[in-house]
Amino acid sequence: MKTLLRTVASVVMVLALIGGMSLLTACGKGPAKPEAALDTPEHHYLTGIRLSNKEDWDGAMRSFQRAVDLDPKFAPGYAGMGLVHGAKGEYKEAYKAIDKAEDLQKSPVIVAEVMKIRVLSMERRKDWVEDAEDAYKTAMKRDPQNAELHFYMGRAYRMGLEFDKSADQFKTVLDLNRDFTGEADKEWHVVQKIQRAAPGTKIGKQIAIIEKISRADVAALFIQELNIDRLFEKRGKTFDPSFKSPGKEEFKADSIVAMEPATDIATHPLKPDIDTVIQLGVRGLEPSPDHKFEPSKPLLKAEYAVMLEDIMIRITGDTKLATQFFGQKSPYPDVRPDMYYFNAAMVLGSRGILEADKVTGEFGGGQAVSGADALLAIRMFKEALKI
């Protein structure tokens, strides 16, 4: 009986050892085996970058994951995973993956530092620009001629509202004349517009980096950068657009509470600016009949032209501007004389405040307005009216 028990115990121990070895093997499994000629870490990393440029973050993560499955020590794969985590707002996981990439990469590779700069530009935590600069300086010691490094540091400076430093980085990319030249050229021209516009307020600088500004943004620009409330008071006439009955003072029942001009801006951070432009009655920035301002709605160039034309008429007192170009032929192939913004486009275009496309000659009324373009137009507006 004792012999039998010892035999059973021995069998159990052997099975346990086999099970344990199987578990260790499963946990510490080696690299995945390639299944095709292009099933390589490098190919999957490049695919992940291409998908991330299209903001297909799930697809990018699958590619980066496959890269590290094939080679658990492939640093760019972990850096790419960090980028995806950052894009999804998972910053703790992002920096963890990037740190692993930094530990694995060997000089002169600097992919971890580049991805860290990109993720910091997404998160924008306290002192993030300084952290990005630290990563940039580290990478510069190993690969100072890396165009990608200079490009994303240029973007970081732009997002950090340091436009002069941003322009210098993009100029460096163009001087290197390697990778990212097309992207850097576009970014450089945007920064140049911002520099020319020279926004004088913090909110103006913040709006300058927005690719497509909203109705709330333009309201803030009109108040903060153009100071239309003061200009209307000084050179034009302000008015209260609310209805007033003639004669005796209007009767108001105690039980009736007037509805707010706009009911969708109560918690909006730019509410004071929006309230002011509503009170001033700027054409094109009025609330709808159902009391909606739609603060997040993207601003179109045609709408912007109408607003600027109205402000110009109000400041100068020249009401003839409203019909100045009626009956004339349109110089813009995309703007017919019967379109609602034709006269505004002509008024602003003839004064160089809003420019047409230099290649096609189109005004682009249906295009969204960028913060840089909006600010530059305000700068040209001020110069045209000498204000």
General description of the model:
The chain is mainly α and 387 residues long. The protein folds into two domains: 41-198, Tetratricopeptide repeat domain (Serine Threonine Protein Phosphatase 5, Tetratricopeptide repeat); 204-241 and 261-385, no CATH class. It contains 17 helices and no strands. The chain has helices at residues 2-27, 41-53, 57-70, 75-87, 91-104, 111-123, 128-142, 147-159, 163-176, 181-197, 202-208, 215-224, 228-235, 271-280, 301-316, 342-350, 371-385. Helix 8 (147-159) packs parallel to helix 10. The protein is elongated.
> How many DSSP E strands?
0
Radius of gyration: 30 Å
Helix content: 55-70%
Average the pLDDT over all residues and give the rounded result: 89
Overall body shape: elongated
Poorly predicted regions: 1-28, 238-253
Total count of helical runs of at least 4 residues: 17
SS strand fraction: under 5%
- Largest sheet, if any? none
Broad structural category: mainly alpha
Gap from first CA to last CA: 108 Å
Structural domain tally: 2
Give me the strand/helix succession.
HHHHHHHHHHHHHHHHH
